[in-house]
Amino acid sequence: MRAVCVYCGSNPGSDPVYLDAARALGRTIAEAGLGVVYGGARVGLMGAMADAALAAGGSVVGILPGALRDRELAHPGLTELIIVDSMHERKAMMAERADAFVALPGGLGTLEELFEVLTWAQLGIHAKPCGVLDVAGYWAPLLRFLDRSVEQGFMTQLSRDLLLAAEDPATLLDRFRAFEPAPRRQWLTATET
Ligand code: AMP
Question: What is the pLDDT of residues 156-173, one digit of tens each?
Answer without folding.
Answer: 999 999 999 999 999 999
